[in-house]
Amino acid sequence: MPHPQLQELTSKLNSGNTRDRILALVALRNLPTPDAVPLIKQGLYDDDLPVRSMAIRSLVSHSTAESLPLLVRLLEDPAYEIRAGAAGALGQLGDDRAVQPLTRAFLEDTDWLVRFSAAVSLGNLQDPRAYQVLLQALNHPEGIIQQAAIAALGEIKAIDAIDALLQFVQSEDWMVRQCLATALGHLSSQKSRSALNYLAKDDHPQVASAATTALAQLHGV
What pTM was computed for the model? Predict the structure, then answer.
């Protein structure tokens, strides 16, 4: 039996009002997956970017066998916002088949936001196959891409990356140093502890706090 809200939400999703369509997609997250997914798929190809972006987020709430191929297809979308949203959603699915398309998006996409989202998602998947591309990303000229790569290498527990990561201990960007401190908290080694002891005395309070927390994490506190 269809969910009692299904007819109402179907009408809203076909409304000419963008706000109605967005609110319908938000509400679809609470419906049973068989009822919700056909309408979410409709939203993925809406004319308005905000509606399509919301549909991507709603799709993550209703993961099915279709979710991964749908999102991978959206990595080729002309709109960078949609490609970035799809890349971010792929990291939330927890499906290691997303590693290859995310790696390709990072290497080939020309928009920094898409590459950032791909790097973050590779970290979320915690798959060691992402190691080489994330290591390469440390040399990216955009600081925010470097931050994503540093965090992701920590997430995948890339202990072999410590020497490459330590080049950022004295980065001029305090956010890079903070990100490094957090990442080192996932990489248990003497080099990590030494670097974190140094960062715990950093002039920026958020860097020092992140380093202190990471040290406690390594010590199992």
Answer: 0.86
